[in-house]
Prior knowledge:
Two copies of one chain form a homodimer.
Chain A lengths: L1 E5 L3 H12 L5 E6 L2 H11 L3 E5 L8 H11 L4 E6 L4 H10 L3 E4 L4 H12 L4 E2 L5 H9 L10 H11 L4 H8 L3 H14 L5 H12 L5
Parallel strand pairs in A: 1-2, 1-3, 3-4, 4-5, 5-6
Helix pairs in contact in A: 2-3, 3-4, 7-9, 7-10, 8-9
The first copy, chain A, binds a DNA duplex through helix 9.
Amino acid sequence: MKVMVVDDHDLIRKGIILLLESYADIEVAADAGDGNEALVLAMQTEPDVVLMDISMPNGLDGFTTTKQLIQQQPNIKVVLLTMHDEEAYIRQAIQSGAHGYILKKSQGSDLYEAIYHVYHGQRYYRTDLSEEQIEKMMKEKEKPVSPLTLREQEVLRLTVLGYTNKEIAEKLHISAKTVENHKSNIMNKLDLKQKHEMIQYGIKNYFSDMR
Amino acid sequence: MKVMVVDDHDLIRKGIILLLESYADIEVAADAGDGNEALVLAMQTEPDVVLMDISMPNGLDGFTTTKQLIQQQPNIKVVLLTMHDEEAYIRQAIQSGAHGYILKKSQGSDLYEAIYHVYHGQRYYRTDLSEEQIEKMMKEKEKPVSPLTLREQEVLRLTVLGYTNKEIAEKLHISAKTVENHKSNIMNKLDLKQKHEMIQYGIKNYFSDMR
DNA sequence: CAATACATAGGGGCATCCCCCTATCCGTAT
DNA sequence: ATACGGATAGGGGGATGCCCCTATGTATTG
């Protein structure tokens, strides 16, 4: 099985490569430090399976890269690797088309298991969520990850970062009044009464891998 | 050199162990998944060098564990491993007494370098900060990590979480006016002009490993 | 075709925040 | 002893935010 490893942390990537190479039937064909590099190297080396971290820099995160990779090489299998075990992450993983999902805290043998299963065309999601929940999410492929619209998400993100309505309005090229409306719609949709509930919802859902 | 590896992510830990074992003069004597386990195993196996992640669960993070480890075994050397390259982290590392500091994004060879140097009694801090800045921080061992007072830090933290002045005042049992004053003092101290700069400073310094 | 969702924008009004002051009390350091 | 930093609190005024309302254009969907 030809595997490519994608992770922006050099040290971690090297360690994972050694882990993979300890299996006789795995060959690490390439490794990349970001999404763009991954797309290029996948074309050149044509790996069977790509093992990819979700948190990556330069705007091209693991989800986005997975989508593009599968579009580019439809037969490629992708296993996402992350420390996050939250519904929003798993839903995004499913919607990105990833074939596998494993946690950094999981056992070393899960890594091989995941690659083996997806190589043979099987799905492999190892999370704390139940198989039923995963199945349900697979059937809801079109359901938005967030109850908020894209615009509302942008407004919320900028609000968490402390920008005033006026500043947000300038950034998004709309009027401050519209920003107010978006905020008010967010509060209604999520059935929130106080500003701090909205901020904390935003932090939890859009900044959980802040760094 | 007998080395112990401490990281709560099993997969990452196993990878790093393989990386270390590829060096002939390094022997991985033990590995631990949290701070408590690390303290116990360090007693039992007496490693020369401990390579430890900073972000760890159960309240006992890398800094705290380092302090306790050095108190328990004064001849032990600790190398901290993290993805954070920010002044606050490095200052805390210095104050915890850690002998080395390397980033997950750094090169594989830095890992060996760090262990080799601290084993031979030298300090090894590989960050984007200049050697002068590190030297300065070493001389300021007692200086608080934050330029803000404890009260200001509390106010900032609650502000980031979206609480209004009135709500913060109630939580801290002070008047809303005093909260305003603290905020204004924060802005002056940090030489900030806009609210979002303060919020983002707060996020960076008090919520960087949110999850 | 009608209904719905989404993004846009404004009016009016009240609450809150932010900024520039002044002020007191306490503890520590020079 | 005096000076300084830290925490507390208030006045006044202008800016901003938030809430309730109305309104329009577009796109999608039943």
